[in-house]
């Protein structure tokens, strides 16, 4: 039995009205934009007023089933009525028109807003939060907190020395010590200087930019199907843990923290087992290194848990969990008040995030609860995975390394080559499905939490048609 649609007024299916994509109106819009801004990465020019639910409408009137969702960032559908109502509220209007500088001049309701929007929806064990402007900003700020915490431990309560105060103004030790963040090969953590130093997914992200020479470890390269490679995958994960242990034992400067994605997303949707993350946390604790989990893309139900790392059942909460994308608000949770700097202005900027987005996060989570969207994502994810298994059997060699079983709709597979992957994405657009890639040859599914089985049928039929051509 087909479930009732969450958006009764959304289109019944895709509709492509132009022979070329982008069409003439989109091309004209891009040409006009190019006069003023960089449009080199533009994929579609969108008519957001007409887009609704799971459907995106472009400037030419083409209607796409969107399983990419603004790079995994839309949680509860385009023009969601609950979010529109919240946007028109007096609370949002006041915050928008007065844009408080939250670090110095927070609104009197700020404690309630933060609790309802962030803390009430935080992972287990995460008690505090900093609000930031983007996922990159969140990771960058988490690194700063890790560095400050490490230095505070070394000082053992002592204040700054005169040498600290003088040397730091010249970007030299001891005030500016050499300290590192450990990340993993194929990771993506953002595009600011610190976050970009831990990003390893594509050269184009990093070329020509001076970056920190921080260490990296291998992330497990698992073989699929998982059930056919149990011993090999366990050995691969242990190899990576041993490498982490060796880096932390021998690196020439202290490592303050290790950052990891539950599923490496931009780098190719690379997975690891819960056992890997248990061993990783234990290894970090052995070396006194903080554990940062980057949930920017995996957070907010997409993997079948509100937060992907909750599926690991760790003995201790991560030290910090960064968030953005589907949560709409960006920032990081932290589990221990000792991570909060003892002095003001050590972590600070004018805005300290956007209060409107904290309100928006509250209503997104309300929608998730009211419509049981976590369970919907689990059920639809299983349905999609089974459908892709059948297509993989039907088209051997075209759908490879299918992964994401029992991970909600956070599903991916590999094409035969980079060229085949890019052609597949383009062909799917002509079938009315907006889909995205990851890594060198990967296809990743990032539908919204309101994606249902009848949407899955449309997507699966389009995949079938593209591969049969």
UniProtKB/TrEMBL annotation:
Its cofactor is pyridoxal 5'-phosphate. GO terms for molecular function: 4-aminobutyrate:2-oxoglutarate transaminase activity; pyridoxal phosphate binding. PROSITE patterns: AA_TRANSFER_CLASS_3. Gene3D superfamilies: Aspartate Aminotransferase, domain 1, Type I PLP-dependent aspartate aminotransferase-like (Major domain). Pfam families: Aminotran_3. Its EC number is 2.6.1.19. GO terms for cellular component: cytosol; mitochondrion. Keywords: Aminotransferase, Pyridoxal phosphate, Transferase. Coiled coil: none annotated. One of its GO terms (biological process) is gamma-aminobutyric acid catabolic process. It catalyses: 4-aminobutanoate + 2-oxoglutarate = succinate semialdehyde + L-glutamate. It is an enzyme of class 2 (transferase). The keyword Transferase applies. Belongs to the class-III pyridoxal-phosphate-dependent aminotransferase family. PANTHER family: 4-AMINOBUTYRATE AMINOTRANSFERASE, MITOCHONDRIAL, AMINOTRANSFERASE. This is 4-aminobutyrate aminotransferase.
